[in-house]
User: Fold this.
Amino acid sequence: MSEIRKSWGLHIGVVSLLLALNFILPDYHHGNLARVMVLACYAMGYNILFGYTGLLSLGHALFFAAGMYGMSLTVQHLGWSAGPAIIVGLASGLAMSLIVGILSLRTAGVAFMIVTLMFAQAGYLAALYFGEYTRGDEGFVIQKAARQIGGIDLSDPMNRYLAALVLFAVCLFITLRVVQTGFGRVLVAIRENEERTRMLGYDVHRHKLLAILLSGTMSAAAGASYGLLFGYAGATFASVQYSIFPLLWVLLGGAGTVLGPFVGTLFMFYLIDLSSDISTAYMLIAGLTLVLLTLFAPQGLVGELRRRTLRWLP
Amino acid sequence: MTKSNSDDTKIVETPPITDTMQPNRRQAIKTLAATTTLAAVASTTPLFGRYGQAQSAEPIKIGFQVHRTGIGAAYGRWYNRTTEAAVKKINDEGGINGREVQIVAEDDGTDPKRGAEVVEKLATQHGCDIAFGTLFSHVVIGSAPRAGELKIPYFVVSEGHHVASGMLNRYTLQPGITDVKSQVQAMAPFVNSTLGKKVTMIYPDFAFGHDHRDYFSAAVEAQGGKVVAKIAIPPTESSFTKYFPKIPRDTEVIYHVMVGPAVLTFVKEMGEFFGNSRPEIFGFIDSLEAVDLASPGLEFLEGTYFWEGNPRYAQANQSDYDKAYRAAVGVDNNGASISDSKDVSTYAHMFGCWETLHIVKAGMEASGYAGADDRAKLIEAVEAMTSIPHSYANPQGAKEFNGKTHQTFGHQYITRVENSKLVLAHTTSIADTYYPDEVDYTTQSF
Assistant:
């Protein structure tokens, strides 16, 4: 079997497994997995830029929040229904990533990290400043009646799970397809040696910009969906910690692997959740585990798997 | 059958005795023998004795969403201590409906995402009867939709206006602490009549500050006063000297609600700016909860006024209820921990946990709560509450609960800093805190 066929088989298998879990998981884990799948889309978006293109952004919360606010503010203040509101969320993420991309790509390395961090901080403060509309740090509820698409109530656990799964599958297959195309290979080439890629005649700037657009829009899709599926939008999601989370999830799962972001998000969720059952000092347990993982599996869980056995993993 | 009247005392209705129920002598002896045996067993089994009337031996599980880490940690620690003390009292008095009360605490990191996850965990993993105890508004608002979807009663202790504003749902209630809108507007008469009519407001430039700006401006103008300047301070600011020159010269009162670690710098720099000729100053204690008023840099606050939900220092007119509550939680007369005088409590807010748990107890007993199937009945029982008297269960003071808006209303306290202690200067009426209803949750279905 070719590596491409094996890759598709594995990823379709993962999505099928997640679909099967919908019918057997107990309530608590069912709800958690829905949330993890949405957040994994955020991490997958981040991974396209960081894992495949080698651009370390510290400001991705800006895109997540752009999607969340683009969707929720149109529902809240313009009375739009969820379907068109999601499109507005995606468009907000696309527009924001275009602006940030054009400006931040004038820098590189540490400067790129700082510029993206500053943009995100400006976005966070803007969400607070326009508190009249956003309710700032407090945020607001997206009412149950507004959380419907085509008559499907997204506050229902089953519908929520399936909606999260659809989003997850779309983001997963887009990522998989991208890394298999020439475009994806150029991104990896930029990550490995930007000068050589440029010398080979590729338009590095254009590829980086497209990577930011894809990454930012995918993050925005996750933000918009999170707001819609869980009924809340607030400035916390634009804060710096929500820029750090996807970096952490991707590093844990394996940067530059298609499944890594999902595995990292899932692992981090249950690490916090289970360790909090053991002790009130659960952050210490979580911290120690992360240190050990960084020491002994520096390429992340899926990355390590690829290094040791499954070398064909995309 | 047990039901509750408005002052939350229980009335026990005895079913009428019918012919078939009239015991004959043989049955009476049998019953007596069985009762004697049960009593003998009960006397040797402490738990059975204590919760002997319970229909179910299962404890009532109260899920406690606690801010153990994150920005709310100082509040969370004291909310935890108050909750544990209240549960001990309730259990010592026989539990709820004769059942032991058990607290299942989960840290939400003072984060709305984790908050929602914690509510899910309490409801579906731990099988809690209710969720309770959340303080920070963004965590409440992030968690409440999930509580509504999971149909678990969610008793918050937040003082946010989110419940009464109609933003949340029928499953979310705030019966143990007043909301910011009522607190702020109740300050206006005192500020206007005692301190001055021209007010400059200094507040953080986010939702909490905006609530103060909007509600207080409206209330003070309704009283014939005027807000002469509104100075919003960005949340990232760590020095405030550039803002003080913006205070108009004709300001008679400064109203401040700064929060977070920068508050000490704020007070110190304000003192340096004004020197000995300052206007009257009024603030919300939220800024200085868990902070010792004798801390260096706070000397400038001497002679200024504060809102307190419940006076931190034991006052001259301290009620027996406050005395008992203070002792039960382990707080001394200065509002600090009995075991560590430097460990200052969040006394102005934490009573809300104590009072909420007693209202949950009253609601469960009024509705004959037996399990998750009775959650709707519990909510209806709490909605039916009106006057809640000043008592051991409600040591902060009497309250009026509005079942339609799910929000309680109560007295507010204004204290003055004298020798680094807060001394009671004024107590508002409950009527001062009223505003028109903005929602009727009772029209929402379960």
